[in-house]
Design brief:
By secondary structure, this protein is an all-alpha fold. Helix content is about 75%, strand content about 0%.
């Protein structure tokens, strides 16, 4: 299957999808998509390091200012489900440009915020644009390259997804400490302007399908369902208490609404569901999704608690903790291009298995050596190994789902995979945060929002050194035990990965799996 003319760039020859490498036309499209992805992904991690400063500047509690991050995530969850329909109804180029406009507008307004409430509102606007950037961009790039090269283009899209959690805290720490917190938002404006200019020049307009009808009932079920589910998980993890009435009600309501959407989408009379769940009848889509869920839960949860270890146990600043995470990004950059090419040549199944094995070795390194005085060189080596494995796991897994789809199925599959990744990441971080909190409580240590709290300042000076050493040893042991749980989730990911395609993609659609 080759990309049709409507999805190609102005520089693309009609048969470019059949070529082995990526031509200049596809690379130009990749640049446009990566620019958008960099903005939306970096923004999540950059803001996290500024929450304490925002709380002080606006004289707001951490519980209130936390909505600067949570509001953005909820907006993402609300708008992602409608992206597949909007791509078909208005065209992917128009949708992509609109998403960047909304994101840049929200960024510029957030930089001018005068209180916590205004900042939260502008972050929601950012999220409405940011939620559409990734699925629309993945659709554009996948259709431009064709199935034979989907592994290579996915490896390009995956670069900002891997580097965001690494460079975000470093960039955010520098801007907050040495410039102003407002620049964590203003920095998106010039990047967005360049992305808009290149999108208008490079992306070829595709024909919208006005007859595409919006599944209103599906939208009413899925968007608030995902928002409520993510809110419940995020708030429960933050408070280390999933039994609170507001948390419990939100989580249950979100789960019920999401389940209601599943029943609705699979109904016989629903010819045009918001998310085409029948795509999961395909073996490649179903197994890739299962692998992605387990991997995202384990990996993003593991990456969440590592900065907490550096700051709580080792006493490092947020900026230094961000620097110490850099080896993971370096490792990912080494293997991601290799993983993309191998996916297109030998099939994703073998590549993902190799990647998962390497990630397991890296996480095992943390589970075995994360003590209160562990060598930074040893931890950096384990992080580098984790990065090597992730570069050969995440995007090849997504490629496995996209390779066997027809052109018109790509937008909805891209939307579904982004939803899976978003929800799985939220579940994983909540699960690991709760596990860490329970491990700390089991050792009679205080917790704050799922994180360890050690005596600080004058309080720490009053505690004898030998007692402080015992506290830090207990904290490190809690982190180390939590990493064993992440390792167990990663091992489970091998089961669905066994069924991923192990042949070079040829553009054919695989046979559906029977659904009972």
């Amino acid at each position: 299957m080759t990309a049709p003319a409507s999805s190609q760039t102005k520089a693309d020859p009609p048969d470019s999808a059949s070529a082995g490498g990526l031509d200049r036309g596809v690379l130009a499209v990749a640049i446009v998509v990566v620019l958008g992805a960099i903005m939306s992904i970096l923004d999540v991690t950059v803001v996290n390091v500024a929450l304490k400063h925002l709380s002080e500047d606006f004289d707001a509690s951490l519980a209130t200012i936390q909505w600067v991050a949570t509001g953005y995530t909820l907006a993402l969850a609300t708008v992602i489900p409608v992206t597949g329909w909007a791509s078909a109804r208005f065209g992917t180029k128009r949708l992509y440009i609109l998403s960047i406009v909304l994101f840049v507008a929200g960024s510029a307004l957030a930089g001018t915020a005068w209180n916590a409430e205004s900042l939260i509102a502008f972050r929601v606007l950012q999220g409405l644009g940011g939620g559409m950037i990734m699925p629309a961009g993945m659709t554009i790039l996948t259709q431009a390259a064709g199935p034979q090269r989907v592994g290579q283009v996915m490896s390009i899209v995956g670069i900002p997804m891997l580097l965001g959690p690494i460079t975000g805290p470093i960039l955010g720490g520098w801007l907050v400490d040495d410039v102003s917190w407002r620049w964590i938002f203003y920095i998106n404006v010039p990047i967005g302007a360049v992305a808009l200019f290149l999108a208008a020049r490079i992306l070829k307009r595709d024909e919208p399908r006005p007859a595409e009808r919006l599944d209103f009932l599906g939208l009413l079920l899925l968007s608030p369902g995902l928002a409520a589910l993510i809110y419940g998980l995020a708030t429960g993890a933050e408070k280390s208490d999933f039994g609170r009435p507001n948390v419990l009600i939100a989580t249950i309501a979100g789960a019920v609404l999401t389940l209601g959407f599943v029943v609705h989408a699979l109904g016989r009379h629903n010819k045009n569901p918001l998310i085409d769940l029948r795509l999961f009848q395909r073996r490649s889509v179903a197994t890739a999704s299962g692998t992605l869920v387990l991997f995202a839960c384990a990996f993003f949860g593991a990456m969440l608690i590592l900065p907490l270890y550096y700051q709580s146990v080792r006493g490092e600043s947020a900026f230094t903790a961000g620097l110490l995470l850099a080896p993971q990004g370096v490792g990912a950059m080494v293997t991601m291009p290799i993983g993309g090419k191998l996916t297109d040549r030998v099939g994703p199944g073998r590549v993902v298995w190799i990647g998962l094995t390497i990630v397991v070795l890296g996480v095992a390194g943390f589970a075995s050596q994360l003590t209160a005085d562990a060598s930074y060189w040893g931890l950096g080596a384990a992080l580098f190994v984790m990065g090597l494995g992730m570069g050969m796991t995440m995007m090849p897994t997504m490629s496995a789902a996209m390779q066997t789809l027809q052109h018109d199925e790509v937008p909805r599959a891209s939307t579904a995979l982004n939803i899976i990744q978003q929800v799985a990441g939220s579940i994983g971080t909540a699960f690991i945060a709760v596990l860490l909190a329970s491990q700390l409580r089991a050792r009679d240590l205080p917790t704050g929002g799922g994180a360890a709290e050690a005596p600080a300042g004058a309080q720490a000076q009053q505690v004898p050194p030998e007692v402080m050493a015992q506290v830090f040893n207990k904290m490190a042991d809690a982190f180390q035990t939590t990493y064993w749980w992440s390792l167990a989730l990663l091992v489970l990911a091998f089961i669905p990965a066994l069924m991923l395609p192990r042949k070079k993609p040829d553009g054919a659609v695989d046979a559906p799996m029977p659904m009972h």
